[in-house]
């Protein structure tokens, strides 16, 4: 077994050329592209004919190729060795890295220009290496090819020794499958013909669940970070009204609270809730289609309230469905705080906050029931809970150990090295900084849930659930947008937390100024 130092050296030597597939002669115009959405860093579009999505990085100007290659390599290693193994290769998808011709990138900028929101257009596509994922807006997913083609592809891949040692056969087969889809028209036509022979519709729901756990040192009694941040959004006029959604309800494990949380997301999606039907966006903060009509038709029920209840009930069944963990599942354990990092003074005016909290009509409920350990919500919450120290203690720890971290993301290689060197051990120890950064990533991810009615014995998913009417659905659920957080985010988070609390105080001081109750 290699030592962590040896493995770290191997990881640092990996070149993106070892991971990516070069798709020469590919014409994306022939694959029926659909704009799917974008965030601050990435633009996502679907290839509707082959049921895959491409995620491309954006920037305000052309960036150094070496920098982008290193960032994408790091993202891949983080997904494969950390996210995939924590979620037991069940609730996560590892991207296939592909290089597409540069002329296709120029064409994509023009093609999507009219579909993109104006406030996102300050960034464009300059980088021609993309991440490819199965399109979860459609079921069933196809992901494998036969072993012979897998072996044949391995022999064609340069510098494959490390990949053969550390990447699974399943991933290599899927990689080869994607290569064939893009480069072999006959194979592509064959797979398209096999897709969804029963012609059943698929609903796909995207949720950003946010923070279901806060370290005690960062916790304000009565209000969670998400609900606190609503006041900052009101102050900055990025929203017109406060959301009634509370992540603590969704992560509570209590069926009534979970249903209430989902209904509040439907009432006020903001950017935390979207619904797709067969790949088309039908509901989001921007409205789009009539959700009531869609759900009534989906559940064959003209009663709108019953249809919404059935829909939310089905989502809770998927979110809490427990799947036995695989052999690769790992558990992170945070090492205890050093004495110098304990009992730090708080920056928060606790007395003022507590006085304001007494004026709130509703307060966030910290108490929880029991989420199934190996459900997707249970695993996300477990990853969030590895931060038990809080931001101030983590910043203090980093101040004492800054010399040990020569880059923003060096900790990622340290964690991967520990995972690989300690196999078959499934317990991985983290220091408080590493725990905080992994926990932060788990507080900023999205969940994609896809489901469709089952057709007889044709079930391709390992999740099968029933609605209130005992109709059976097959489902697939995965975490997405789980990116590594830089160490430099500690400073940003300190400023963010201060701004959020100041907005909260200012909002309530302004609303009560006439009565001279506080402030």
TrEMBL record:
<dbReference type="GO" id="GO:0005634">
    <property type="term" value="C:nucleus"/>
</dbReference>
<dbReference type="GO" id="GO:0005524">
    <property type="term" value="F:ATP binding"/>
</dbReference>
<comment type="function">
    <text>Phosphorylates Ins(1,3,4,5,6)P5 at position 2 to form Ins(1,2,3,4,5,6)P6 (InsP6 or phytate).</text>
</comment>
<dbReference type="GO" id="GO:0032958">
    <property type="term" value="P:inositol phosphate biosynthetic process"/>
</dbReference>
<keyword id="KW-0808">Transferase</keyword>
<dbReference type="InterPro" id="IPR009286">
    <property type="entry name" value="Ins_P5_2-kin"/>
</dbReference>
<dbReference type="GO" id="GO:0035299">
    <property type="term" value="F:inositol-1,3,4,5,6-pentakisphosphate 2-kinase activity"/>
</dbReference>
<keyword id="KW-0067">ATP-binding</keyword>
<keyword id="KW-0547">Nucleotide-binding</keyword>
<comment type="similarity">
    <text>Belongs to the IPK1 type 2 family.</text>
</comment>
<protein>
    <recommendedName>
        <fullName>Inositol-pentakisphosphate 2-kinase</fullName>
        <ecNumber>2.7.1.158</ecNumber>
    </recommendedName>
</protein>
<dbReference type="InterPro" id="IPR043001">
    <property type="entry name" value="IP5_2-K_N_lobe"/>
</dbReference>
<dbReference type="Pfam" id="PF06090">
    <property type="entry name" value="Ins_P5_2-kin"/>
</dbReference>
<keyword id="KW-0418">Kinase</keyword>
């Amino acid at each position: 077994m290699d030592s962590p130092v040896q493995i770290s050296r191997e990881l640092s030597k990996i070149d993106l050329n070892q991971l990516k597939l070069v798709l020469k002669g590919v014409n994306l115009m022939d694959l029926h592209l659909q704009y799917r959405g974008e965030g601050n860093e990435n633009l996502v579009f679907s290839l509707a004919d082959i049921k895959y999505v491409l995620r491309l990085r954006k920037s305000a100007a052309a960036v150094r190729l070496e920098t982008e290659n290193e960032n994408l390599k790091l993202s891949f290693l983080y997904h494969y060795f950390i996210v995939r193994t924590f979620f037991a290769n069940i609730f996560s998808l590892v991207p296939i890295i592909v290089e597409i011709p540069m002329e296709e990138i120029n064409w994509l900028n023009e093609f999507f220009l009219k579909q993109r929101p104006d406030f996102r257009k300050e960034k464009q596509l300059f980088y021609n290496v993309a991440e490819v994922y199965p399109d979860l807006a459609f079921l069933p997913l196809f992901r494998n090819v036969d072993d012979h083609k897998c072996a044949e592809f391995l022999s064609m891949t340069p510098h494959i020794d490390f990949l053969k040692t550390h990447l699974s056969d399943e991933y290599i087969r899927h990689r080869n499958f994607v290569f064939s889809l893009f480069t072999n028209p006959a194979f592509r036509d064959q797979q398209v013909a096999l897709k969804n022979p029963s012609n059943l519709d698929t609903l796909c729901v995207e949720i950003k669940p946010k923070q279901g756990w806060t370290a005690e040192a960062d916790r304000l009694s009565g209000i969670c970070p998400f609900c606190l941040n609503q006041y900052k959004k009101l102050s900055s006029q990025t929203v017109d009204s406060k959301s009634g959604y509370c992540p603590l309800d969704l992560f509570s494990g209590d069926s009534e609270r979970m249903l209430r949380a989902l209904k509040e997301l439907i009432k006020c999606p903001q950017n935390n809730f979207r619904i797709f039907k067969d790949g088309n966006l039908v509901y989001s903060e921007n409205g789009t289609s009539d959700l009531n009509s869609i759900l009534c038709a989906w559940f064959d029920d003209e009663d709108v309230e019953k249809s919404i209840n059935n829909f939310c009930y089905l989502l809770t069944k998927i979110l809490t469905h427990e799947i036995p963990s695989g052999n690769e599942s790992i558990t992170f354990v945070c090492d205890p705080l050093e004495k110098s990092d304990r009992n730090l003074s708080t920056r928060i005016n606790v007395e003022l906050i507590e006085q304001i909290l007494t004026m709130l009509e509703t307060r966030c409920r910290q108490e929880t029931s029991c989420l199934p350990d190996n459900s997707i919500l249970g695993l996300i919450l477990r990853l969030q809970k590895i931060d038990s120290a809080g931001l101030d203690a983590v910043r203090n720890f980093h101040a004492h150990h800054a010399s040990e971290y020569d880059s923003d993301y060096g900790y990622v290689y340290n964690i991967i090295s520990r995972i690989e060197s300690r196999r078959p051990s499934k317990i991985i120890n983290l220091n408080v900084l590493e725990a905080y950064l992994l926990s932060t990533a788990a507080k900023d991810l999205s969940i994609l849930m896809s489901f469709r009615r089952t057709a007889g014995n044709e079930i391709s998913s390992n999740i099968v659930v029933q609605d209130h009417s005992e109709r059976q659905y097959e489902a697939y659920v995965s975490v997405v947008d789980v990116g590594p957080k830089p160490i430099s985010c500690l400073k940003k988070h300190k400023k963010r937390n201060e701004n959020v609390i100041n907005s909260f105080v200012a909002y309530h001081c302004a609303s009560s100024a006439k009565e001279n109750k506080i402030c």
